[in-house]
Backbone:
């Protein structure tokens, strides 16, 4: 005999719809992947990669480890809902299997177990083993979730306690889903309590006592109230499931697919792809990207942060402003608990708004470079900071390096600035030219003093030779004993350039280099959390005044421990900071050059 | 009308009453900093593309604003978007955005 | 009790105001941060528009300073507070000073050309500033390149540190254009065979005799004025300087080499002035110079009664205009002193 009551319908129908949506979209997304990615997916599922992927799903989607690192309260809140609900479902299923009288049970059975089974003391599990174990466990898990709910309510008013100054504005579907989600567990609590109270048993430490109290107050009406509450519980669940695919909570299933994609080696492309759609779906609108965005915190621009941008892509309402107004500094990507490559999506969208730029750059001249084992590429910006060039020339001469200064007479841009306008196809011509030049020189090492060029060389050029940022190369020369150094003990603060740090994951070489000549001081935000100088070539629509705000704010934080010198590893950062800084701003090459005796 | 024996060549003439102000209007909306240009020439002097080809960004954007659109439609394609011009401009003209704006304006005119 | 005026700053403005006030019978204390009074005027060789020696003006100012003026050098103000009856100062030497009226004549600094790194000041040996050149003139030694040779080609870059959003100074410093023309003529006088160039965005020949000097520079001295702003410089092996410019008048890029490059640096507000303004609650303009109470009718007053301002602390001025301005300030102070108890 299958247990059934009319009230289970909203839940069941909602669940069916949700499962249908998940299957349909997952199928669509996988099918729409480019051929090589589909292959990766097929082989991936049946490979060893499946298990680390599952592990990450557990650690991030349930435990929310990345959230915890950001703020303990924030992490706990998400943990209690996600992990708590997962355990509730898991143990609910176990419980229902133990207590049910029939072998086959419909999916709604564990959810509404207490409606169908009231007296557990007569059942073999209660008699023969630990009495009240499940009564305790289910109540405990419910309480666990409810503490998270209380925190979620507090967060609405006091988000600062959760480490968030600003939080996302919600759309209508988000609000509906949120209300339902918030209702589910309190309503469950009361539905179970009323039932347990009316039947005088079956409840745990929470539900039984609450239930007894309710029966004391409501007497005979308790049964009616209980039934209404079960309906409400089912409706809350049903409506939640039905609105889920159209709300922020769609990230729950989508994120799982994204994690699997990543582990199988499927990653973002330069054009819009299925992967990008999955990323966009996986955005939980948590709003962590809002606080870390310097356009918001320093320049008071509040409508272009990653979460709003992704929303505009999802709603197919991207406009020029939101696409072009981003520093492409990577801070939001770094902070995102789901790891969405917001910068890349921004560049994809920019293609639409940058107008036709279809130059073939055929005006670039024929090249015939001198042969040399090492090639130094200063980059466009470095020609406006000649102190860096002088330092590099001096150091390389001292170290006796046979090098070719590739762009001494003038630079052909590395191509990254064009890529930042969304025109990655056009950049290819510049890349071809420079690549040909580099390879013709016969060099085995390419050294550049500009992180923007460095990132371009690494990501776009596919060079068969070593590509090094000058901080790395100079460190190598020093370690080989080619550069005599006399440390001068000045307090130096090092600023991580966006394209070198987050963009190329090189945080250590410049620090190691600087530590050999000066005293590095601690700064509050460094490494992955470092601030953008504001000089970014990634942002198009910004006034000089707004840029100044970002620069000054970053400068303030960098000089908090009163260093004597601000060290940079990027000519653009150097120029940007020098405009406002009262202290000396030097490139690391200059600092090393100054430390050479004589 | 007195016959001077010559006339100003119409094609050389910038007729500010009748010229095509569409690019100018588009720029006013999307990159108004262009209005503060004093034509000092720093941008053209430092231009990366200008080293290799006849590309005078100062002249081109001035002429576009004066209504000389047709012959200059493809000029912007020469730009490498490197950003040196912005770094030297004394008036803070955002030239990279200006170039994107001009490109979209010209697209709209087609 | 005689009312006391303290003048902070012993440059052209401070000296002028001090002597005017003393002549009118008022008690004045003149505080100067450095070892001697005179300000920047001590460093100029010859002054525009008539190229007369700067020391003549300095001597005149000094002579006018009667011994009624209490001149105190090597003094810096550590703190000031406003009292109901005037101002109470603590100097860094520990001395205490009370006065009824305060005149801020703290002057200006010159733009640090190293901030315009692309011009190579401090990096290339043959790039100097107009101030450096003026010191060379004063020293009486002939001008040479860094290798000690006679310069055959000299370039002057206008608007260095002024009218430039990139260094945060949007204002025009007024005096640099005419200084560039003056110095061009002076070098040509020394080396008639040399070729001199001026690279400008505009030539601000706004005052009397300035335009005539420009005309003379072209007609008599064959100075070449090229309209184009230098974007960056590079250095040859022989330390000559390569310039990148657009010749805007012909709309073509231009490249040239010079033996010596002179950067015409402008005025910047002194950090000391800003510090005092913050202590006293005086308004600072967006250009970071001091604000007068009224641009036309109360040019030397500030929003605080009893605090006056004279000279370049309010913005770029020529020497002759500074003297006039300081004289007006002194008169305003003298009248104010009559009104207070």
Residues:
């Amino acid at each position: 005999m299958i247990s059934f009551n009319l009230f289970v319908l909203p839940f069941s129908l909602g669940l069916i719809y949700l499962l249908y949506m998940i299957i349909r979209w997952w199928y669509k997304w996988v099918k729409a992947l480019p051929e090589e990615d589909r292959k990766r997916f097929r082989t991936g599922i049946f490979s060893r990669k499946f298990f680390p992927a599952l592990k990450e799903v557990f650690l991030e989607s349930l435990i929310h480890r990345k959230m915890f690192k950001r703020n303990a309260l924030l992490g706990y809140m998400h943990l209690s809902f996600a992990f708590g609900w997962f355990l509730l479902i898991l143990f609910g299923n176990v419980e229902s299997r133990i207590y049910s009288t029939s072998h086959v049970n419909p999916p709604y059975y564990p959810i509404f177990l207490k409606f169908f089974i009231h007296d557990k003391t007569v059942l073999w599990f209660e008699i023969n083993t630990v009495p009240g174990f499940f009564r305790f466990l289910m109540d405990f898990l419910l309480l666990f979730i409810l503490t998270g709910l209380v925190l979620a309510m507090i967060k609405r008013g006091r988000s600062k306690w959760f480490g968030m100054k600003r939080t996302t504005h919600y759309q209508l579907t988000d609000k509906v889903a949120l209300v339902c989600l918030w209702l589910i567990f309190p309503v469950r609590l009361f539905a179970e309590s009323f039932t347990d109270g009316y039947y005088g048993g079956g409840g745990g430490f929470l539900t039984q006592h609450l239930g007894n109290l309710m029966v004391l107050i409501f007497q005979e009406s308790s049964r009616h109230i209980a039934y209404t509450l079960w309906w409400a519980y089912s409706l809350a669940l049903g409506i939640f499931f039905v609105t889920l695919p159209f709300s922020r909570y769609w990230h729950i299933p989508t994120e799982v697919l994204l994690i699997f994609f990543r582990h199988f080696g499927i990653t973002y492309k330069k054009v819009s792809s299925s992967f990008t759609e999955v990323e966009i779906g996986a955005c939980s609108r948590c709003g962590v990207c809002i606080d870390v965005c310097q356009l918001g915190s320093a320049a008071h621009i509040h409508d272009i942060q990653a979460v709003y941008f992704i929303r505009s892509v999802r709603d197919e309402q991207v406009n020029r402003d939101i696409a072009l107004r981003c520093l492409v500094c990577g801070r939001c990507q770094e902070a995102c608990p789901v790891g969405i490559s917001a910068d890349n999506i921004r560049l994809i969208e920019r293609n639409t708004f940058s107008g036709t730029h279809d130059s073939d750059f055929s005006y670039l001249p024929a090249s015939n470079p001198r042969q040399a084992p090492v090639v130094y590429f200063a980059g466009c910006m470095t020609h406006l900071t000649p102190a860096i060039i002088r330092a590099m020339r001096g150091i390389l001469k001292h170290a006796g390096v046979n090098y070719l200064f590739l762009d001494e007479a003038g630079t052909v841009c590395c191509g990254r600035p064009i890529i930042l306008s969304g025109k990655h196809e056009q950049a290819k011509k510049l890349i071809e030219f420079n690549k040909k030049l580099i390879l013709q020189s016969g060099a085995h090492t390419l050294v550049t003093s500009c992180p923007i060029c460095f990132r371009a060389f690494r990501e776009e050029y596919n060079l068969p030779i070593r590509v090094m940022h000058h901080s790395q190369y100079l460190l190598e020369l020093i370690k080989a004993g080619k550069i005599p150094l006399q440390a001068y003990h000045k307090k130096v603060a090092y600023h991580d350039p966006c394209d070198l740090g987050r963009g190329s994951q090189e945080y250590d070489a410049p620090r190691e280099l600087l530590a050999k000549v000066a005293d590095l001081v601690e700064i509050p935000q460094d490494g992955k959390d470092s601030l953008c100088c504001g000089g970014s070539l990634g942002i198009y629509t910004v006034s000089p005044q707004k840029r100044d705000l970002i620069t000054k704010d970053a400068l303030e934080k960098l000089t908090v421990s009163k260093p004597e010198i601000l060290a940079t590893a990027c000519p653009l950062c150097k120029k940007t900071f020098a405009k406002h800084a009262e202290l000396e701003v030097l490139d690391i090459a200059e600092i090393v050059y100054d430390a050479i005796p004589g | 009308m007195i016959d001077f024996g010559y006339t100003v060549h119409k094609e050389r003439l910038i007729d500010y009453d009748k010229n095509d102000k569409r690019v100018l209007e588009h720029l006013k909306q999307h990159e108004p900093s262009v209005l503060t240009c004093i034509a000092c020439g720093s941008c053209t002097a430092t231009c990366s593309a200008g080293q290799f080809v006849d590309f005078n960004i100062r002249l081109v954007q001035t002429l576009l604003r004066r209504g000389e659109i047709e012959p200059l439609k493809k000029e912007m394609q020469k730009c490498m978007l490197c950003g040196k011009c912005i770094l030297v401009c004394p008036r803070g003209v955002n030239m990279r955005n200006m170039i994107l704006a001009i490109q979209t304006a010209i697209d709209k005119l087609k | 009790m005689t009312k006391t005026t303290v003048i902070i700053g012993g440059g052209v403005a401070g000296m002028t105001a001090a002597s005017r006030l003393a002549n009118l019978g008022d008690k004045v204390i003149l505080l100067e941060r450095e070892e001697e009074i005179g300000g920047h005027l001590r460093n100029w060789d010859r002054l525009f528009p008539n190229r007369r020696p700067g020391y003549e003006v300095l001597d005149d100012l000094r002579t006018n300073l009667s011994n009624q003026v209490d001149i105190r050098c090597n003094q810096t103000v550590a703190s000031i507070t406003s009292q109901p009856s005037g101002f109470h100062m603590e100097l860094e030497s520990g001395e205490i000073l009370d006065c009824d009226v305060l005149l801020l004549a703290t002057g200006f600094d010159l733009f640090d050309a190293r901030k315009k790194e692309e011009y190579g000041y401090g990096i290339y040996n043959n790039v100097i500033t107009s101030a450096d050149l003026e010191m060379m003139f004063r020293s009486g030694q002939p001008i040479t390149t860094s290798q000690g040779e006679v310069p055959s080609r000299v370039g002057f870059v206008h608007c260095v540190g002024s009218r430039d959003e990139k260094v945060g100074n949007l204002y025009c410093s007024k005096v640099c254009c005419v200084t560039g023309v003056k110095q061009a003529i002076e070098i040509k006088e020394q080396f008639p065979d040399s070729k001199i160039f001026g690279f400008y965005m505009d030539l601000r020949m706004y005052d009397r005799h300035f335009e005539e000097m420009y005309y003379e520079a072209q007609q008599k001295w064959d100075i070449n004025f090229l309209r184009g702003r230098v974007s960056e410089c590079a250095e040859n092996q022989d330390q000559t300087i390569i310039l990148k410019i657009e010749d805007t008048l012909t709309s073509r890029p231009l490249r040239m080499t010079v033996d010596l490059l002179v950067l015409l640096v402008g005025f910047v507000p002194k950090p000391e002035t800003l510090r005092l303004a913050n202590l006293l609650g005086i308004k600072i303009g967006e250009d970071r110079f001091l604000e007068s109470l009224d641009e036309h009718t109360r040019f030397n007053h500030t929003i605080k009664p009893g605090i006056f301002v004279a000279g370049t602390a309010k913005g770029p001025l020529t020497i002759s205009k500074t003297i006039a301005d300081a004289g007006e300030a002194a008169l305003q102070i003298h009248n104010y002193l009559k009104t207070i108890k």
About this structure: The interface with chain A takes residues 30-31, 33, 46, 48-49, 51-53, 76-84, 87-88, 92, 94, 96-97, 100-107 of chain B (CB under 8 Å). Chain B has five helices and no strands. The radius of gyration of chain B is 15 Å.
